[in-house]
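sorry for the late reply, my laptop died twice this morning and i had to redo everyting from scratch. anyway the thing you sent over, i finally got around to it. pasting the sequence first so we're on the same page, its 165 residues, then the predicted structure underneath. double check i copied it right bc i was rushing
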Amino acid sequence: MRRCRPCRRPPSACLNSPPLRTATVSIVVRTEAGAGLPWVFVYGTLKRGQSNVQVMAGARFAAPALSVQPWRLVALRHYPALVREAGPARIAGELWEVPEAMMAMLDRFEEVPALYTRHEIEVECLAADEAGSLAAGARLPAHTYFMPAAQAAAGRELLTGAWPA
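ok and here's the structure:
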């Protein structure tokens, strides 16, 4: 398969922006049936101020959030990876409201299933959002993208649960 030289992605998923591999880990929070758009929790390069925030164009930032369960978070060369093992800290990130049509694009960006697999977890909102749809302290079921431990083995453990460290 042909891949973009700078980002190593298939041409259809190429953002043509350095560094070489700038994916991020995301957590997708689903709303109740018919209640609204899905929520996405990001804690890597999709966060505001990070290298791939442009991927979130069309989504609405809602609030900062944490995973309820502590997980292992490792820093690879240009992006973090969440490992499906108990870790030392809850994972810090941001909640975004995302149009349903963006979900398939985010899956392609995260290279599911080749690089990440999706599993459900629970996240906690740290502040109310401006739209009034989330309250501080609200806990939401979520899907997240985990990287297999063997693929993340070269990374440096982030003991604080936050990236960048």
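Confidence is low (pLDDT under 50) at residues 3-8, 10-34.
thats about all i looked at so far, will dig more tmrw
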